[in-house]
Amino acid sequence: MMPTTATPRHSEYRLRRRVHFYEADPAGIVHFSWFSRYLEEAEHALWREAGLSIAPLTSDIAFPRVAMTFDFRRPLRFEDEFEVHIRIAAIGRASMRYTCVVTHGGQEVATGSLTIACVQRGVDGTMHAVPIPDHIRSRFEVAAEASA
Amino acid sequence: MMPTTATPRHSEYRLRRRVHFYEADPAGIVHFSWFSRYLEEAEHALWREAGLSIAPLTSDIAFPRVAMTFDFRRPLRFEDEFEVHIRIAAIGRASMRYTCVVTHGGQEVATGSLTIACVQRGVDGTMHAVPIPDHIRSRFEVAAEASA
Amino acid sequence: MMPTTATPRHSEYRLRRRVHFYEADPAGIVHFSWFSRYLEEAEHALWREAGLSIAPLTSDIAFPRVAMTFDFRRPLRFEDEFEVHIRIAAIGRASMRYTCVVTHGGQEVATGSLTIACVQRGVDGTMHAVPIPDHIRSRFEVAAEASA
Amino acid sequence: MMPTTATPRHSEYRLRRRVHFYEADPAGIVHFSWFSRYLEEAEHALWREAGLSIAPLTSDIAFPRVAMTFDFRRPLRFEDEFEVHIRIAAIGRASMRYTCVVTHGGQEVATGSLTIACVQRGVDGTMHAVPIPDHIRSRFEVAAEASA
């Protein structure tokens, strides 16, 4: 059977979001811990756009985070509207890597990266690395211009 | 067999805590959403003092929160040391109710209450009310002076 | 000059939102502390719809939270889409009270209330109650069917 | 007057902490966003041990975060007791860099790094880089064995 082009692969997502009051700190700017959450929100939206949930209720496959980096250039404040542009930078046998750029009013606020692993969870809570299942891998591809 | 006094029952706990930077908001004061977390931290410390975990890894018994109230009188700020005094106000067949007083420097910051239910979780995630197991109920008692 | 009807008053808002992964706890359900944040998100959206920010960058008027209640009936889970329907239940000289209903798939998840005060902040961080400024009060009215 | 050695310089801190319920996610493990908060808690404790607050109420000097990295090796779960060992890896004219190791039961859970800048805030909220004030710089020194 020939491969078809009926199912497009997904490689990036642009999440638009407004800063909530509780995300900003006494300095009046978004606390840096929120950027990892913004990145993950964009990741999960990318998966949903690909027809997937990253954490279905009954799955024993999970995607723990194994590495993260962030550089912060400008602050975000309460009610600022910003964009998180996530791109798939690499797809390995049992891992994936994303990069992201956070912008506000056309200016770069932060850049980041996130590496996730694919694991199978035992009933005792242990996790061991497994290949990314085909029905997941087949929905994604590396973005053309993902920065390292 | 006679009941013994060998195992004291627990009815209250005083948690001492310092405000973290990320808990304060752009107004410079602890965001009100944190008080429900402070109350829960005190609850879990009370359970630990009674020799219990409220959420053991392998248990199908859980204690979801069913009601909460808070009144806020004074603000807390970054690095303030405060106390959360939790007391058991009522123990029902399948529920418990706590009250708490949050103080800082001898002054009342907030008062609150929390009601939890005892449920059994099915493999499909459903929950139905069950009596509090005896090995848990027997470790607690209502505090003498718990305010309503 | 006659009063005009050009500026409608606002009394309620319906916020639609999806549960983020980091909002759910080891029991697989949204941690109860998030409901106070959902309520506040809806409040701030109501103010924006009324052409206002509840915390402008340069204002010495602030609206600290003075009381909150919540009753929880059903759980929310990762990726659930839910609605927070906030209504103004009372407007006093120096305070306002909201009620809210959180629903998911047509079913009631939680109900809550929130009372806020209007204060003026001194340069030393102190706060004292002041009447709600007219340019704010004039944008809001009590909702017709707000439950107590 | 001769300089004295009466005031020791500080270069590291070991924070001991227990995982709160609300820090763990539906996978039953601490959500990765919390590690940046754990690191910051250790940083602020290091500053307090050095007799300083990183964010005094009335200061126009602030220390925004400009870069962060984390590698995650093992999960933390509810009620786990863990340690965050933070060390000063570099002190520049207007910036500092920390590294940290998070351990649990003698095993490495995560490693991370954090770079902060020293800025002066204008009344309009703008920030520009300034040298770290001497009364702060003089309290700290680079740790002997800080890993890069």
Describe the secondary structure blueprint for this structure.
4 copies of one chain form a homotetramer.
Chain A: E1 12-18, H1 33-49, E2 61-62, E3 65-72, E4 81-91, E5 95-104, E6 107-117, E7 119-121, E8 127-129, H2 134-137
Antiparallel strand pairs in A: 1-4, 2-7, 3-6, 4-5, 5-6, 7-8
Spatial order of strands in the largest sheet of chain A: 1-4-5-6-3
The greatest interface here is: A-D, 27 and 27 residues
Give the biggest beta sheet of chain A. Answer: 5 strands, antiparallel
Mean pLDDT of chain A: 93
Question: Strand content of the residues of chain A, in percent?
Answer: 35-45%
Please state the overall shape of chain A, judged from the principal axes of the Cα atoms: globular
- How helical, in percent, are the residues of chain A? 10-25%
Q: Which ranges of chain A are low-confidence, i.e. pLDDT below 50, for 5 or more consecutive residues?
A: none
